[in-house]
Amino acid sequence: MTSQMMVDLVPVGEDVLEDLLALAVAEAQPGEVMPPASGESAHEARTTWTEPRKGAFRDYHRRCRLTPAAAVPEVTWAVKTRGRIVGAARLALVDGDPSAREVGLWLGQSYRGHGIAGEVAYWALAAAHTMDARRLVARTVASARARRSLERIGFEVAEQDGGLVGTLTLP
Predict the structure, then answer these.
(1) Which residues are CB-contacts of 64 (< 8 A; sequence separation ≥ 6)?
(2) Shortest CA distance to 119 belongs to which of 1, 9, 10?
């Protein structure tokens, strides 16, 4: 049985970054939580945390910080519930299309299945509206659980390249 948890999204400043990395190392694989590090293939199995991957994780989140001086194509936030960091969420431009945003989420293993994804989805919808987006896209691994989660939120889901792609048209 799942229970709803109150979720907060906080900027990934230096004060949050090391806690987020510690959670990722303890409860997720590099391939689940960040794009490939420099020199790695997108198709390479990335299951082990190495020092270069930890550095790439830090660099990725530093690049995705909102600043008043510069717009960024992708923004990340740490997901907190009950005062603990439990994962990260992101919104990114889709192929440079200003009317579309890709929403992404990863959660530590022990926080999956507690309704957090649904809570983050509602946040993503609101944030996308403030960015004048007309469409949300979500990409994830192909699994019955992922499909149900996306469909429950309202995404139309299709299989693509061995994974799932969900699309949601915003009102």
Answers:
(1) 12, 72, 74, 75, 76, 90
(2) 9
Task: Report the C-alpha gap between 90 and 88 in whole angstroms.
Answer: 7
Q: CA geometry: angle at 63 spanning 27 and 37, to 5°?
A: 55
Q: How far apart are the first and last CA of the chain?
A: 32
Q: How far apart are CA 31 and CA 72, in angstroms?
A: 22
* Whole-angstrom distance, CA of residue 168 vs CA of residue 150: 9
**Threshold 0.70, pTM exceeds:** yes
In one letter, which amino acid is 110?
Answer: S
Residues 113-169: pLDDT tens digits? 888 988 888 888 888 888 888 999 998 888 898 899 889 889 999 999 888 999 999
Please compute Rg for the chain using Cα positions: 15
Alpha-carbon distance of 38 to 16, in angstroms, equals 23
Please tell me the number of Cα atoms within 13 Å of 108 on its side-chain side: 19
For 10, the 3-state DSSP assignment is: strand
